[in-house]
Design a protein that fits this description.
single chain; 172 residues; alpha+beta; Protein Transport Mog1p, Chain A; seven-stranded antiparallel β-sheet; three-stranded antiparallel β-sheet; 4 helices; 23% helix; globular
Length: 172
């Protein structure tokens, strides 16, 4: 019977490679999900920022100055995504700044959640936002976008879906 001896360095390298592959399995999906970009952490949330977009914190926590809400702007400045995710509740005042008109599009209720879809008209843009309030556990969140182009392009809509679907809200 023939015996093969594998040098310790190769065993270690193979072991580390397998461990990295095993531990990074969940990250592999995020890297190849078409979103690109980077992870942003606010006071009570994390969210994926699509490639080619910049984050600007809007409202911050009075305690630690971390973001409660953010605007995420496209490179050309024509589209902005928005997220407001406080610890418990509140009103997303910053979406109303500069708004000329507000229209409630729909109201949906479930046993534990309340959703309101709003359209806001600004001087040079239109915004669409979903305000959700949950009672179990208690949480509030507003997510949406405003755009100077009227409707989102297919590419921008894909980026928005990645942004919206990546939101991870913290609670106590």
């Amino acid at each position: 019977m023939r015996r093969y001896v594998i040098p310790a360095g190769i065993v270690l390298l193979l072991s580390l490679s397998f461990s990295w592959f095993w531990l990074s399995g969940s990250n592999a999906t995020a890297e190849h999900d078409g979103c690109g970009g980077f992870q942003y952490e606010g006071a009570w949330f994390t969210v994926k920022i699509p490639q080619g977009m910049e984050v600007e914190p809007s409202r911050t926590s009075s305690i630690d100055k971390e973001a409660l809400s953010i605007w995420v702007r496209s490179e050309d400045g024509r589209t902005e995504f928005y997220l407001y995710s406080p610890q418990w509740g509140g009103t997303p005042y910053d979406i109303f700044l500069g708004a000329l008109a507000k229209r409630e599009l729909t109201q949906r209720d479930t046993p534990t959640d309340n959703f309101t879809d709003l359209e806001l008209t600004y001087k040079d843009a239109i915004g669409r936002f979903e305000i959700s309030q949950s009672s179990d556990p208690v949480s509030h969140r507003t997510v949406g976008y405003r755009t100077k182009t009227g409707e989102l392009s297919q590419e921008t809509l894909q980026k928005y879906d990645c942004f919206k679907n990546s939101i991870n809200q913290y609670s106590d």
